[in-house]
Amino acid sequence: MSLTINYNGMAANAARNLSNSYGALATSTQRLSSGLRINTAADDAAGLAIRELMRSDVAAINQGVRNANDAISMIQTADGALQVVDEKLIRMKELAEQAATGTYTSDQRLIIDSEYQAMASEITRIANATDFNGIYLLNGNLSASTHSGSGINASGKLKVHFGSGNQSAEDYYYVQIGTSTASALGVGLGAASGASGRSISTQELAQKALDAIQTAIVSKDKIRANLGALQNRLENTISNLQIQGENLKAAESQISDVDVATEMTQFVRQQILTQSAVAMLSQANSLPKMAMQLISG
Question: Where is each Flagellin C-terminal domain found (predicted)?
């Protein structure tokens, strides 16, 4: 290699190696400080795309878990109200049994019937008043067999969405709650004309009411059993979603997160190369001085 003044090839080569090493050192510093292998699309374009899709799925699944927990809270609210309705029906059956015997006068049966009707009115009040976040649960609002969410307010049975997509087989299912008013259960004066459970004001009506109340209790128990099954299903759904979210997060971590041990090895390597390049560039920059020595004799 010729000794020249206008061009210092060794210094240029050392400068180029310094730039490469320093750039690699900066990349390692960024990865170690952020904990991410992929910080920009330039690091891994395909990996970045996969990571962002996984992140969106994880976020949707986490919200799905919250949605399912909200649905469980709603079901528990309905079940708690039905438990009170159960107590009222039991008391009504007790009153009907009392009025069905012949040791009471007609006036006394009317007094018993007044409490019977009060219990029926309370059942209707509970059914009409029980709501969760403004959604009425027991008044027939969720008793329809179909669902429509096209309007501002959804109608029909309630749709619980917990999956990251919109497939009926895996992303949502419905909560349907039967009507639990006294008239729907067939007891009290609100029941259909001729219904056996309308009144216990006479001995015959009281005897007929026993069967009607038994039917009402069975109807109420079916609603509660359905709610219990839905709650168990939601709890299993939550468990599955949590496992799915954990696995997605682990997969995303494998793609996105930095391997600290490997990256630290690269960091030390690039640090040594950078320091060596700086030292060699300093030496190479001093080589043209040899030409001055030759010129000065």
Answer: 210-294
Q: How far apart are CA 243 and CA 84, in angstroms?
A: 36
**What's the Cα-to-Cα distance from 68 to each of 8, 54, 178, 227, 245, rounded to whole Å?**
71, 21, 20, 14, 14
- In this predicted model, what pLDDT tens digit does every residue of 65-92 receive, in sequence order? 999 999 999 999 999 999 999 999 999 9
Give pLDDT, residue 291: 74
The pTM (predicted TM-score) of the whole model is 0.80
Residue with tokens 């990256």: 263
Q: What is the pLDDT of residue 78?
A: 96
For residues 98 and 129, membership in a common domain is answered with: yes
What does the DSSP 8-state code read for residue 187?
B
**Domain total in the chain:** 2
- 231/263 same-domain check: no
Average pLDDT over residues 234-246: 94
Based on the domain organization, do 190 and 152 belong to the same domain? yes
What CATH number did the domain enclosing 219 receive?
A: 1.20.1330.10
